[in-house]
Amino acid sequence: MSPSKDPLPDFSDVHGGSSSTAPKPLAEKPATRTYTVVKGDSLSKIAKAHYGRMDKWRVIYEANRAVIGNNPDLIKPGQVLTIPDA
């Protein structure tokens, strides 16, 4: 077969970039982590385990005030706490 004698296309006026009419994907909602309190737990121990810092206990408390109540020192075994991203 002999090579084609057609001229090569001229792409010298093509500029980079892109566009799309495809819809943007929806942002995924972060997965909610939970922790079930066991005997001997404290919010500071739970914070240390999840965040590496005991002083982050307030983050857990504020997210779980409805479960824990007004006294953050009175968590009870069996309570399921939400562990927010810190």
Chain-wise SSE layout:
Layout: E1 33-36, H1 43-51, H2 57-63, H3 65-68, E2 80-83
Antiparallel strand pairs: 1-2
Helix pairs in contact: 1-2
As laid out across the biggest beta sheet, the strand order is 1-2
CATH-level-2 architecture of the domain at 38-83: Roll
- Poorly predicted ranges (pLDDT <50, ≥5 residues)? none
Give the mean pLDDT.
Answer: 87
Residue share in β-strands: 5-15%
The termini sit apart by 68 Å
Strand tally: 2
Helix content: 10-25%
Tally of alpha and pi helices = 3
Order of helices and strands: EHHHE
The major β-sheet equals: 2 strands, antiparallel
Radius of gyration: 28 Å
List keywords for this structure.
86 residues; alpha+beta; Membrane-bound Lytic Murein Transglycosylase D, Chain A; two-stranded antiparallel ribbon; 2 strands; 23% helix
Could you explain the architecture of this structure?
The protein contains three helices and two strands; from the N terminus they run βαααβ. By secondary structure, it is of the alpha+beta class. It has a domain at 38-83: LysM domain (Membrane-bound Lytic Murein Transglycosylase D, Chain A), CATH 3.10.350. Strands 1-2 form a two-stranded antiparallel sheet. The chain is rod-shaped.
